[in-house]
Write a structure and sequence with these properties.
elongated; mainly alpha
């Protein structure tokens, strides 16, 4: 297909496609003459992935580049690609107290989770616990355990539902689920809280949310 058709299929403007080509985010098409090139379904998939990461995932192009580098590195294990996607979604600066880090490490060890010792997501969780402590609402250990068990089910389901086709399909699905699954979980959590609240407080009817 020509670039105009690629643009129509992906809803990405031609000018943006050309920019991605110049920046190396999108592989070059098959050259046909001096100024024209043909594109195929791999370009469609890549553009949709970039668009999802930028628009829905909120990633900068610099972070998108990091994720795509992991996607394109054929020798890289899928487990490492997942880590690259996680890294792109983390805040730039993470700080946590030693106490909260120790709490997180103990929690993961008690549940037998196989997580890299230097995983920055340990720091991310510890930082969140610190934030709750600072506002006077420390997370109850039983509630934290409940969160962990629910997260374990979600993580198992995410990985179990990854496609088993080509490596490219699996990698793309891994990145997309990691980047875009969080808003789904957040919305479901809020809906579940509304449901639980209605049952606990015997709400006669539910009102539409603004």
């Amino acid at each position: 297909m020509w670039i105009a058709e690629l643009s129509r299929q992906t809803d990405v403007p031609v000018a943006t496609i050309k920019y991605y080509l110049r920046e190396g985010l999108l592989p070059a098409g098959e050259a046909v003459g001096a100024t024209r090139a043909r594109y195929d379904e791999s370009h469609v998939r890549r553009l949709r992935l970039i668009r999802a990461l930028v628009e829905a995932g909120g990633l900068t192009l610099a972070r998108v580049r990091d994720v795509l580098s992991a996607v394109d590195e054929e020798s890289r294990e899928l487990h490492d690609v997942l880590g690259a996607a996680h890294g792109a979604l983390r805040p730039d600066k993470l700080e946590a107290t030693d106490e909260s880090l120790a709490r997180v490490n103990e929690l993961l060890a008690d549940h037998g989770w196989r997580v890299d010792e230097d995983s920055l997501d340990r720091v991310l969780l510890a930082s969140a616990l610190d934030a709750l402590d600072r506002v006077g609402h420390p997370l109850d250990p039983l509630l934290l355990d409940s969160y962990l068990m629910a997260a374990e089910q979600v993580g198992d389901a995410d990985v179990a539902h990854l496609p088993t086709g080509t490596r490219a399909e699996t990698v793309e699905a891994t990145v997309v689920i990691t980047a875009l699954g969080a808003p789904v979980l957040l919305a479901l959590r809020r809906l579940a809280q509304q449901n639980a609240s209605a049952h606990r407080y015997n709400a006669v009817r539910t009102r539409p949310c603004l």
